[in-house]
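Lab notes, practical 5.
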Amino acid sequence: MQSMRGTIIQIGYDTPMEKWLVSWIGETDHKAAEGSLNGEPGPIATALMAEQYDRVRLLTNYSHERSGKYCDWLEALTGHPRIDLQQIDLSSPIDHADIYRQVTAELQQCRLPSSDILLTFHLSPGTPAMATIWVLLAKSRFPARLIQTAKQHQGVMEANVAFDLAGDFLPEFLQRTDERVGRLLARPEGIAQEFAGIVHASALMREQIQRAQQVAVHNVPVLVLGESGTGKELFAEAIHHASGRTGKYIAVNCGAIPKELVNSELFGHKKGAFTGADRERTGHFREANGGTLFLDEIGDLPLDAQVRLLRAIQQGEVTPLGASEPHKVDVRIVAATHRDLMADVRSGRFREDLFHRLAVGIIRLPALRERREDIPLLATHFMGLINHDSAHSPEWQHKEISENAIKVLFSHDWPGNVRELYHTLLRASIWARQGVLDAQDIEGNLLGMPRKQDGILDRNIGQGFEIEKILDEVKAHYIRVAMQRAQGKKKDAAALLGLNTYQTLNNWMEKLGLTSADND
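Output from the prediction step:
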């Protein structure tokens, strides 16, 4: 049988089977529907004109509106009566693990595999990572034909794989990190591969990631601010890997070091420098030479260590305790704290000169309650990690999360932020007896943390109380929320805040030191 685009592939079967085509919608398909390909129909339409399918299931990580218009165009072009569209919100279209997880869930939702359904996966639309996952699934959990379109053959071809991926390749593939499998692929929306592991959808997080990317390539100190559990170390690691520095990345929790040992831990000591110094210690600065030193909870450093740290940053050298000669070091400092360092500077707990040395590149990570649209992505991501880490336990049952459970996650304030979310899901997964976590599973595993007494309405009035600063905090909080909901459009954000003009919003943002991409 001939078609307008090529030869249809005939395959014989003993019993009738319902034929399904499952495919991602790619950018080329959208462009075909939008009339920018000079009459070319695109990969999916080519496949439907070359072969009859009883049902077509299309997946999209584009906007539902754009892909919905594509499906309308496709139905009008091919006359196919059963084209289904399913929105799949990926953390990244080249994140192999996320694609594998979400496509597997979608196919299971369709009650596949089934003995009376012949599956066909279309490899051409979408990213190379999407095609890779189709091959893996077709050769393992969801047996399927594989097709692709090729202009040189004017039609559709079967993609024959000459070896058994399930036995030879899949185990190795699943052990690879996202960094290895995605190293040569471009990241969407300007997100560099080093930052692709930061799961997000919110404009607030995207802005901070872009700021971190910009500062990463400059050899200057970076200060990461944010509540506990917001992911400060994740940013520090990404900045190091994006910096191009070839030395080690060393993380130090300043708050966990006994005060009497801080100088020795950071800068080293000579044998006999103090009681108990029975051997020489190099110190974290020299260990990180050529690399990055992440100083978490920098606000907990005692003042004498702050003096030594300032000298190390200014002079590029450290002098171990008990030594007279300094050692040159080339170390990039990324510091982080949940404290209000400006308040610590005013109270004398933190040196002002050190603060200004560190605060060259400032990254402010929002609390989870300020980026609630990220909760479904994070929950799905964490469930995948939990299932992966527990897969080898003989008693483990694979767990999913229900929509009702997601709603409960939305309503919580998350004082422990992303870290608290992960451990809540871990507890719920351990205790749940069924395969799908419901609302009760989540509610039963939320920790009833006592309400913090340092909230905006709980400040103690007395010496050092500054009402103007507190009002600025309130303004900054609601400006961030409004800008996020308005997707960066200042006119819309100003309307949400009840301001007559967005110029007023501009003035407030400049005064408060807030920045954002203006999409007007």
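Observations recorded by the TA: Confidence is low (pLDDT under 50) at residues 1-15, 163-189. The two ends are 54 Å apart (CA to CA).
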